[in-house]
Hints:
three-stranded antiparallel β-sheet, 9 helices, alpha+beta, 35% strand, 18 strands, Tetrahydropterin Synthase, Chain A, elongated
Amino acid sequence: xxxxxxxxxxxxxxxxxxxxxxxxxxxxxxxxxxxxxxxxxxxxxxxxxxxxxxxxxxxxxxxxxxxxxxxxxxxxxxxxxxxxxxxxxxxxxxxxxxxxxxxxxxxxxxxxxxxxxxxxxxxxxxxxxxxxxxxxxxxxxxxxxxxxxxxxxxxxxxxxxxxxxxxxxxxxxxxxxxxxxxxxxxxxxxxxxxxxxxxxxxxxxxxxxxxxxxxxxxxxxxxxxxxxxxxxxxxxxxxxxxxxxxxxxxxxxxxxxxxxxxxxxxxxxxxxxxxxxxxxxxxxxxxxxxxxxxxxxxxxxxxxxxxxxxxxxxxxxxxxxxxxxxxxxxxxxxxxxxxxxxxxxxxxxxxxxxxxxxxxxxxxxx
Length: 366
């Protein structure tokens, strides 16, 4: 029976189930009745036959010359290049590749040390399975606290870092070193005269020591929040309601001073603090509104009385001037007559010429 091995193939010749030799491309005739069998394989793939052990194949000289082999031990990986280009990553094991049409080369990478060598091209990590390494990206303005097997290792500034995750378990925690705002919303505080207030308070702080704040304080944001609450209660709880309203501008300054006294214990720096709102209970708000309306009404009455007094004083002065000056009196009289005439569409006179003469005499009198 004829067997054709194509140019991109090689053949495994068997007789009675035993491997005989490797066949190159060409045409062959091996009688099947004599127990011959040919198994073909593409030479672009790995040089492995499902029908025969690799160690048996390696005894054949043609097979040994036609392949490239590599053994990858534990804690190492191999970057597989085909004709100078990265093909894939080989994990621990033995590999055999046909080297007839393609050139296979390898770069062994040691993962036994957690620190990644600076000589390794970082683009290779695009091909390495993520289970073998940890990638840490530290943005600008932040720091990363690095842990090996849960133990603090060091502090990382902004940048991109790679660590092998084989020998030790690598973990990290980001810490924002920029200014941060913490808001205390709806904090209920009771004054000395038993008035319950709700205060919205803001403060801005900056972390000074990232390692200390993570290693010595658990849930530092919760701790800082509690600190501000206690300081607010200390201040507000010592005043009556009316006293607090008079001194509300001083609350922020007092709280900021108290926070600065404690900031070193929390490894932070407080920069500013301030009150956003003081929310009154419903009944207190109604009373305050009533008081405000009464105050504004009283102010309006004072202004009205003041204007009335000024108007009366002006009329009195005008009357004195007209009493002392007859010409001014006549001018004022003519002014009012003009205003009356402007309002009248027509005038009907009765009683002969006497009324007309009187009007003419009044208007023309010097």
